[in-house]
Amino acid sequence: MSVQAAVLGFALVALLLTVTPGLDTALVLRAAVARGRRDAFATALGVVGGVLAWGAAAAVGVSALLTASTVAYAALRLVGAGYLVWLGGRILWRLVRSRAAAPAGSAPAAPGGAWRSARTGLLTNLLNPKVGAFYVAVLPQFLPAGTPALAMGVLLALVHAAMSLVWFTVLVLGAVAARRWLQRPAVSRTVEGVTGAALLGSGLRLALPGG
């Protein structure tokens, strides 16, 4: 397999993974609706930073070690599950509290800040061992013989990151264009509720044995 064929093959797999709705998409969409373009792109950059970190880790064998070590994987899984449960629970609690305290028809307020948004995107990705498991399972299939594993792994992670940025850009611009409709209280609350429930549910599933 040539380097070009490996990059194209991995790009197809990464594309399918990127456009499949998941936690990353929910976080970026929520940031776009609740806080605007800047925080949405900050969230996306945090997610992409996590992608690059896992890709590099897989290339040097860190992710493989986590997958092979039951204790290490379980520890990261529980930490990641706790973070997702806390994040999702906080969103849902703020939604319930704002509904009780705010005037009828008002949308829930969400704390913002580019750094906070980027940190949320980064930690959500870094604390998800399934991202590392994905790289461990997929990366070896796209490492041509004779190529440096670290350099090739970083290159493939960059391809994944670039595709993620393109997808998130389309998502953010679309959400910002429709922000006036999306910020209607009923719609905004729905976005908050779905995102919080998705994070909480993912955390609970991750906490279960075999999650």
From TrEMBL:
Identify its membrane topology class: Multi-pass membrane protein
Q: What is its main location?
A: membrane
Q: Name one Pfam family in it.
A: LysE
Q: Transmembrane segments in this chain: where?
A: 6-29, 41-66, 72-93, 126-143, 149-176
| Gene Ontology MF term list | amino acid transmembrane transporter activity
- Mind telling me which GO cellular component terms the entry cites? plasma membrane
Keywords noted in UniProt: Cell membrane, Membrane, Transmembrane, Transmembrane helix
The molecule here is called Threonine/homoserine/homoserine lactone efflux protein
**What organism does the UniProt record list as the source?**
Geodermatophilus poikilotrophus
